[in-house]
Design a protein that fits this description.
The protein has three domains: 127 residues, Uridine Diphospho-n-acetylenolpyruvylglucosamine Reductase, domain 2; 125 residues, 2-Layer Sandwich (Uridine Diphospho-n-acetylenolpyruvylglucosamine Reductase, domain 3), CATH 3.30.465.10; 188 residues, Vanillyl-alcohol Oxidase, Chain A, domain 3. Helices cover 28% and strands 24% of the residues. The longest helix has 15 residues. A seven-stranded antiparallel β-sheet has the order 17-14-16-15-19-20-18.
């Protein structure tokens, strides 16, 4: 029997299922959780009708495939949705959204499932899983890519690099394009090509009432503005169209390794160079504790331009200090884009805090270096900003943080749950020491209080609320950096 046939047969037979958050399941209903947290009941007949309307799968607990489908990337997250709708088309998504909206059912949207705080799943609600929708079509002549909402960054890179084209993608290839893009989309080429949101030409959006809308400069321009940095607040994106740029996938770059004793001098050099670095340069220090217990600082360099010009511009880095290893030279860019995939693999435990730094001042450098001591030290890292992304006005897209020099991240990845408490405490402590130099944060990475989330959108927040009121007045799409509607 095919899996889909099994799912439908099981629903028709009234299989008894169990949802940990709601245990009172009868033969005719399935207990679930509403968006506002109350217990609700779903009629099995309605669930069966939903299953029959989908070209994808609908999973309930205790059915084959449910446990696999409910898993997300961060091993710290272990939730049990009442329903999992694995969608294969925009029509599937619209059906699932209407079902959830009509019943005020808690709804989570999963693309790559990479949400650090686990917003792509939920207990007792519906997980809407886009992962079967991952096709990428490249139009070489138009220099555009049409990308399904469940595609991963690796799918997009693989489809474009072979044509010597690219758009900005992130640093772990199994991240979903959808969540990455909706929050802004920082990557190694954002200084050259702009953020991911700066390269979105159009999108297909399923709104809270199940309508399928096109969002572009010419169609529903308010929605188009909002999805470029406003997160998943306004609907489910089932298709993006990205602008592509000519790109040589053999870049000039590499990794330079130093002992942590040279950290202040190296960060001072970075701050000095950053004042004149061309857009082609992406220079990102990171620091960590090696397997031998020694603290190290390294600089990852990607120059996306003429190699000879890159050698000249980046020569001060090669001349700096007492290098413990590494060099710069021609490299396959896809090696950069996938080198952290195993380290950031599915099922590992992850915790992170981050924030934007407008300028790397001497005081900020002192805070970064002097407070990096103690037990359970996390990794620290920069994402280099400026260049093309800074040339877009804060009000031109929902992403407002255009004036920062960098995004500083503090994170740990581990596998032993007994280490969770001290690792998280160390991250929070280090973040607190750096917080005086931080202005806002990258919503793709952080989970903050509702008040901090609102403030993080800055001058764009009132406009975002008006658009939320129009497209999601009941706050169906709330598992995100949430913009609460006012009606």
């Amino acid at each position: 029997m095919k899996r889909r046939d099994f799912c439908l047969s099981a629903l028709a037979a009234g299989v008894t299922t169990s949802v940990p958050a709601c245990s009172r399941t009868s033969s005719n209903t399935i207990d679930a959780i509403s968006g506002s947290g109350e217990e609700i009941s779903l009629e099995r007949a309605a669930v069966r009708e939903l299953a029959e309307s989908l070209s994808g799968e609908l999973y309930l607990p205790q059915q084959a495939g449910y446990d696999s489908a409910r898993k997300v990337w961060n091993g710290m997250i272990d939730k049990h949705p009442a329903l999992i709708a694995q969608c294969r088309s925009t029509n599937d998504v619209a059906s699932a959204v209407r079902f959830a909206g009509e019943r005020n059912l808690l709804l989570a949207v999963k693309g790559g499932g990479h949400s650090f705080p686990g917003k792509s799943t939920c207990d007792g609600g519906m997980m809407l899983d886009l992962s079967p929708m991952h096709a990428v079509d490249v139009d070489v002549q138009a220099r555009t890519a049409r990308v399904d909402g469940g595609a991963l960054l690796g799918h997009l890179d693989a489809a474009t690099f072979g044509h010597n084209l690219a758009t900005t993608t992130g640093i772990v290839s199994h991240t979903g394009c959808g969540g990455f893009t909706l929050g802004g989309g920082l990557g190694r080429t954002d200084r050259l090509h702009g953020l991911a949101v700066d390269n979105v030409l159009a999108a297909t959006v399923v709104t809270a009432d199940g309508r399928v809308l096109q969002a572009s400069a010419g169609e529903n321009p308010d929605l188009y503005w909002a999805i470029r940095g406003g997160g998943g607040n306004f609907g489910v994106i089932t298709e993006f169209v990205y602008r592509l740029h000519p790109f040589n996938p053999t870049v000039y770059g590499g990794t330079l390794v130093y002992g942590f004793g040279q950290a202040k001098e190296l960060l001072r050099l970075w701050a000095e160079l950053n004042q004149t670095l061309p857009r082609e340069a992406n220079v990102e220090p990171l620091w960590f504790v090696g397997e031998d217990g020694m603290r190290m600082i390294v600089v990852e360099v990607v120059w996306s331009g003429n190699h000879s010009a890159g050698e000249m511009v980046l020569a001060p880095l090669l001349d700096f200090g007492r290098r413990a290893g590494g060099t710069l030279g021609p490299m396959d860019y896809s090696q950069f884009q996938t080198k952290d995939d195993a380290y950031m693999g599915h099922g590992k435990l992850n915790y992170l805090k981050s924030g934007f730094v407008v300028e790397l001042t001497e005081d900020a450098i002192d805070a970064i270096v002097d407070n990096y001591e103690g037990d359970w030290l996390p990794a620290g890292w920069f994402q280099h900003q400026g260049g093309a992304m800074a040339q877009v006005a804060p009000a031109d897209t929902a992403f407002v943080h255009r004036d920062a020099d960098l995004n500083v991240g503090i994170s740990s990845v581990w596998t032993d749950p007994s280490e969770s408490e001290p690792r998280i405490a160390a991250i929070r402590s280090y973040y607190a020491a750096l917080q005086p130099y931080i202005k806002g944060y990258y919503t793709n990475l952080n989970e903050e209080s509702e008040q901090k989330t609102w403030g993080n959108f800055g001058e764009n927040y009132p406009r975002l609320v008006k658009i939320k009121n129009r497209y999601d007045p009941t706050n169906l799409f709330r598992l995100n950096a949430n913009i609460r509607p006012t009606r």
